[in-house]
Amino acid sequence: MTQSVQDRLEFAIALAAKAGALAASMRAGLGRPDAKSPIDFCTEADRAVERLVTEQIRTRFGDAVIGEEYGGAASDSVWVVDPIDGTNEYIHATRRWCVSIAYVRAGVTEVGVIYAASDDRLFSARRGEGAFLNGRRMAVSGLAHGSVPVIEAGWSDRVPIGDYAALLQRLEALGFEFRRHGSGALALAEVAAGLNDGYVELHMNAWDALAGLLLAHEAGGVVNDFLADDGLTKGNLVVACTPEIGDRLMEAARWRS
Fold first, then answer.
1. What is the pLDDT of residue 68?
2. Taking a C-beta distance cutoff of 8 angstroms, is the pair 190, 237 a contact?
3. Which residues have a Cβ under 8 Å from the Cβ of 252 and sit 6 or more positions away?
4. Per-residue pLDDT tens for 39-83?
5. 198 with 223: CB under 8 angstroms?
6. Tens digits of residue pLDDT in 141-167
7. CATH topology for 5-137?
């Protein structure tokens, strides 16, 4: 019998919690991390969590998997996994890391689950059914706080630091406050929960972005079409925010000199 999207959502929720628990249990006693770049690291926990998630998905559904550490190929039915987003934060024993799992069918993200194990926050969404934090429906901020918009602005060394600095200047010119906390997936989930007003990054990989973008969309946010232009395999720009600032944030992110 063909498994439904709802089956996959329920499976992803349970699997994310299991994966987060494994990562948390491995935090003490980690060996020296492998440096993939000066700011991007991989630990044995990243690899162990991805192996767990991949094996369980393939055993249950037989679907393809694309993961940050072991890669994979695109398919009409594919899971996209970041075993630990925010590995540098994980290494430093902060709370800013998470497990991110998305399911994509026929080029559309149908399921997104993010689990922040350090404070037991499980974010989940199914396309068309809303977004939830620990089972309670979420909504973007709507700027109900009455203050200036707060934007998290992610960066990786795939983008020149000068381009990132120019983005920050554009945000400042719009009257936005900005910050960077080290986990793009978790920042996107927090847009959905109304804990920040937007997230922008000039280039993200699919495993960092897809689950969080679905969460933000299902919580009433504005998001860009990440999967356009082969975003699944090449990555893309990411914008997610409360609708009141959507046009301005999109313009700031897409500006080029």
1. 87
2. no
3. 167, 170, 171, 174, 200
4. 455 788 899 999 999 999 999 999 999 998 898 999 999 999 999
5. no
6. 999 999 999 999 999 888 999 999 999
7. Fructose-1,6-Bisphosphatase; Chain A, domain 1 (3.30.540)
